[in-house]
């Protein structure tokens, strides 16, 4: 299902950028970023809003006490650690993708936490048999901030390589001249 959605999103992005491509603008990198970000967002929604397939019980469970899952054993298959890592990785990818577009860490955290709050509210309101937990929002925020930090370091390293490349080209040009 996700692959079909990714293909539909790719076609939609291509159609949206078609005028820019016809004008021979260099937008392929931006197109890939938009597509990857849309795939990430839709993937988060698919993963978190699909009802549990095993023993589906349309119950509403809400956990507003931070880190209560560590003492209660709630979570994916009883493993809280898997849930923490999954949330951090899932939103870390989003933080990285958004971090490639902007250096505004607050904006990145706001977008990711907003998405996490939306997901948790939907899990509770739609009675998907999942636990709507404040811990998930916290770990989503941590993951997005780590992803944004990695993106920032990635962009700095890329700029240094580009700057070093122009200095080398300039030095080679002076030697030939």
TrEMBL record:
Q: Where is the signal peptide?
A: none
- VanZ-like domain boundaries: 59-153
Task: Please verify whether the record's keywords include Membrane.
Answer: yes
Q: Which residues cross the membrane?
A: 32-50, 84-101, 108-131, 137-154
Q: Which InterPro entries match?
A: VanZ-like
A Pfam family this chain is assigned to: VanZ
Record has Transcription as a keyword: no
Query: What keywords were assigned to this record?
Result: Membrane, Transmembrane, Transmembrane helix
Q: What is this protein called?
A: VanZ-like domain-containing protein
Q: Which organism does this record belong to?
A: Zhihengliuella salsuginis
Source lineage: Bacteria, Bacillati, Actinomycetota, Actinomycetes, Micrococcales
């Amino acid at each position: 299902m996700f692959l079909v959605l990714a293909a539909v999103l790719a076609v939609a992005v291509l159609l949206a950028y078609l005028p820019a491509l016809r004008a021979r603008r260099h937008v392929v990198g931006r197109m890939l970023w938009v597509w990857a970000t849309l795939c990430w967002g839709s993937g988060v929604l698919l993963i978190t809003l699909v009802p549990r397939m095993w023993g589906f019980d349309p119950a509403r469970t809400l956990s507003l006490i931070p880190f209560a899952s560590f003492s209660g054993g709630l979570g994916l298959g009883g493993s809280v650690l898997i849930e923490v890592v999954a949330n951090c990785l899932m939103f870390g990818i989003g933080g990285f993708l958004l971090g490639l577009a902007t250096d505004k860490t607050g904006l990145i955290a706001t977008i990711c936490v907003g998405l996490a709050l939306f997901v948790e509210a939907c899990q509770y309101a739609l009675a998907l048999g999942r636990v709507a937990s404040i811990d998930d929002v916290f770990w989503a925020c941590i993951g997005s901030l780590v992803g944004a930090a990695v993106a920032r370091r990635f962009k700095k390293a890329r700029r240094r390589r580009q700057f070093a490349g122009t200095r080398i080209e300039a030095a080679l040009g002076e030697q030939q001249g």
